[in-house]
Write a structure and sequence with these properties.
Cyt_P450_CS, 14 helices, vitamin D3 25-hydroxylase activity, binds protoporphyrin IX containing FE, alpha+beta, two-stranded antiparallel ribbon, microsome
């Protein structure tokens, strides 16, 4: 039976709607004593995150987040001065050391080359692409944060990323929920929450050493990367007792930026590879478009994006269909809110069901079908779709969207320009995702077979029918 709870102050009133539509726009849950509201469908998510952006801009004070980052850093930071200061610094750094620089595009292209060369070493034989994609993608964030990349055989960096990514899964495990409801289980010596804490401590130590190492030789006010820029802020605000800049918050934000940028973009590219092998006809159209635009065999640049509407459509459909961050990152209300006649008290945890936005039948026809064409008009031009929110919306929307878009386009086109992707004979991997804060494919093997680029005369446009 469909049931909703009307929230008024501390009191909850059950409502039984007259007709049960497929899903309710808003309902509440009690997650072990944590009052939680779930927002479903595009209209409801937009109403809250866009029209009431500030009200829904907080993060919940969950015991787990408190233990991990003391509600500081950037991603888990409470809404207020600390978050504003950290978000501003990160946005400026991303622009200054990253997407705002022409040179940066060249750096991504260089990484793309390391990436495809490493894949080439498998000589068309089956391999699991997870490790290579993770290393290549995280290196783009590393360039902004540390000014340097890590080689693909750097065992220490890889180990850190593995622990971090394991924590992204553990953070939504039953044990994490249990810890949030009963924080005293911290003193129970067994259970996955202990693994989570051990991983977090190891990651912290690695990042501390990395920050120390990469800040050596720093000249104040001449920042080379995010860490230098942060240390400048820290020193400038040293006399201000209200400043949120601290050495701990530096380590937390570095970790959050690395993991937020790596897990998501890596999973998108891993899904993209899987779906290309699963749908050879779609892959063939991607190949045709790439060959027609990069007709001399040159490497792709961001300028080529406008000329590749089909590639754009495929990447958008991957983001919609695969729902990389299905429930967003938990939000909280920063003050009492009113939504569709419901009152949501200040401090309530809010789950933004982005999955339901991407499968909202009011905005998508046949949402359960993988169909890149839904992002093309009848002339084959790329069209934006309103109910497309993989990066969420409002004040806390993804800070790395622009960077992620650059990376996805350049990695994907470089990869498909050089290779044909296929599964090992007789093996078709499952598309059922592995659950966690992010949805990722279960480990799979794929063959990247070097292709002979068909060279149409430049300007030949492929048919988008
Ligand atoms: C395909 C790639 C990506 C996807 C799908 C994605 C998605 C998201 C989503 C859904 C959120 C939650 C926003 C909310 O609270 O409602 C988020 C937040 C965030 N993302 Fe991304 N993201 C991607 C790539 C990146 C990259 C490359 C970076 C940076 C290197 C990044 C950094 C962040 C940060 C720092 C936040 C927290 C923002 C805040 O709390 O103010 N993301 N992302």
């Amino acid at each position: 039976m469909c049931r909703a709870e009307r929230l008024c102050g501390t009191e909850t009133v059950f409502i039984y709607p007259p007709s049960c539509s497929k899903f309710l726009e808003i309902f509440s849950l009690d997650l072990g004593g944590i009052l939680t509201v779930v927002l479903n469908g595009y209209d409801c998510v937009r109403e809250c995150l866009y029209h009431q952006s500030e009200v829904f801009a907080d993060r919940p004070s969950l015991p787990l987040f408190k233990k991990m980052t003391k509600m500081g850093g950037l991603l888990n930071c409470k809404y207020g001065k600390g978050w504003i200061e950290h978000r501003k610094l990160a946005c400026n750094s991303f622009r200054y050391f990253g997407s705002g620089r022409r040179l940066f595009e060249r750096k991504i292209s260089e990484e793309c080359m390391f990436f495809v060369d490493a894949i080439d070493k498998h000589k068309g034989k089956p391999f699991n692409p997870k490790h290579l994609v993770t290393n290549a993608v995280s290196n783009i964030t590393n360039l902004i944060i540390f000014g340097q990349r890590f080689t693909y055989d750097d065992r220490n960096f890889q180990h850190m990323i593995e622990l971090f990514s394991e924590n992204v899964e553990l953070a939504v495990s039953g044990w994490a929920l249990l810890y949030n409801a009963f924080p005293w289980i911290e003193y129970v010596p067994f259970g996955k929450h202990q693994k989570l804490f051990r991983n977090a401590a190891e990651v912290f130590d690695f990042l501390l050493q990395a920050v120390k190492g990469f800040s050596q030789g720093r000249v104040p006010h001449v920042p080379r990367h995010y860490v230098d820029a942060y240390l400048d802020e820290l020193e400038q605000n040293a006399a201000d007792p209200g400043s949120s800049f601290s050495y701990d918050n530096l380590i937390y934000s570095v970790g959050e930026l690395i993991i937020a940028g790596t897990e998501t973009t890596t999973n998108t590219l891993r899904w993209a590879m899987l779906y290309m092998a699963l749908y050879p006809n779609i892959q063939e159209r991607v190949h045709r478009e790439i060959d027609s635009v990069l007709c001399t065999g040159r490497a792709p640049t961001l300028e080529d994006k406008q000329k590749m509407p089909y590639v754009e459509a495929v990447l958008h459909e991957i983001l919609r269909f695969c729902n990389i961050v299905p429930l967003g990152i938990f939000r909280a209300t920063s003050q009492d809110a009113k939504v569709n006649g419901y009152t949501i008290p200040k401090g309530t945890m809010v789950i933004t069901n982005l999955y339901s936005v991407h499968f909202d039948e009011k905005y998508w026809s046949d949402p359960g079908v993988f169909l890149p064409q839904r992002f093309l008009d009848s002339n084959g031009n790329f069209v934006k779709r309103e109910a497309f929110l993989p990066f969420s919306l409002g004040r806390r929307h993804c800070l790395g969207e622009q960077l992620a878009r650059m990376e996805m386009f350049l990695f994907f086109t470089t990869l498909l320009q050089r290779f044909h992707l296929q599964f090992p004979r007789g093996i078709v991997p499952t598309v059922t995702p592995k659950l966690g804060m992010t949805l990722q494919p279960k480990p799979y093997s794929i063959c990247a077979v070097r292709r002979q680029q068909k060279v149409p005369s430049c300007g030949d446009t492929p048919h988008h029918k």
